Amino acid sequence: SQVEQAVMSSVQPPFLLLKNLSKDDLLPARSRSLRENFPAVEQVLILDRSLRLRQSSPAVRNKHLSVTTEWLVQRVQEELRNVEHAAFDLRTFIDKLDGHYWLFAFQALSEAPEANPDNKPEAWVVLRFRLDGLVESAVTPVLQQFEEDGNGTAVLMAPDDPASKHLRVLDLNDPLPGWRLGLVKARHEAA
Fold it and tell me: What digits encode the pLDDT tens for the residues 129-186?
């Protein structure tokens, strides 16, 4: 759907800024540019090939961020075990932390699978996005255009939002698994 495409179009560009980050490159230098150009990005992690934390921006300096970062590393490990994707594909998942929904996206740091005989990336980039920021910048314009085109009204529904009998509900997939679109058809009045 256009909603899914709009979100992916917003999620992919930050990875390009980090794509060829070498092992010795410093994340803080690039993360400043990343936050300026992509305000929905809240956190950047670099994991080594064994999925251990190598770098974080912002730096993990308090217990809350430390616990969140440990949870995120474990969650990425679970995603890699449970999902059958090519080793170098961009993957996403959504989770609720501290009462807010976040979109997490991760991808191999380099695009050179032939350089690794075991087909395992040397490192991973993990980005944590404010989902409300992505919705505002990517999804809201698509839903407004749907309405302006006279198709009716569409609303993005979180997994825990109750469905209404007045809405036609469509399930969304990657990058918004568990989310739905609620549609109300436009009523065209006869002239």
Answer: 999 999 999 999 999 999 999 888 999 999 888 878 888 888 888 888 889 998 888 7
For residue 46, the tally of other CB atoms under 10 A from its CB is: 19
DSSP string, 53-103: EEEEES---SHHHHHHHHHHHHHHHHHHHH----TT--EEEEEEETTEEEE
Q: What's the full length of the chain, in residues?
A: 191
Q: Give Cα separations from 93 to 29, 48, 76, 159, 187 (angstroms).
A: 27, 20, 9, 13, 36
CA distance 31 to 29: 6
CB 81 within 8 A of CB 87: no
Coil, strand or helix: which one is 123?
A: strand
**Measured between alpha carbons, how far is 97 from 178 in angstroms, rounded to an integer?**
16
Residue 132 structure tokens:
């409300």
Residue 41 φ/ψ, nearest 5 degrees: -75, 120
CB count in 10 Å sphere of residue 21: 19
Q: Is the torsion defined by CA of 5, 175, 81, 128 positive or negative? A: positive
C-alpha separations of 103 from 40, 67, 97, 114, 175 in Å: 10, 18, 10, 30, 8
Task: Please compute the mean of the pLDDT values over residues 94-106 and round it to a whole number.
Answer: 89
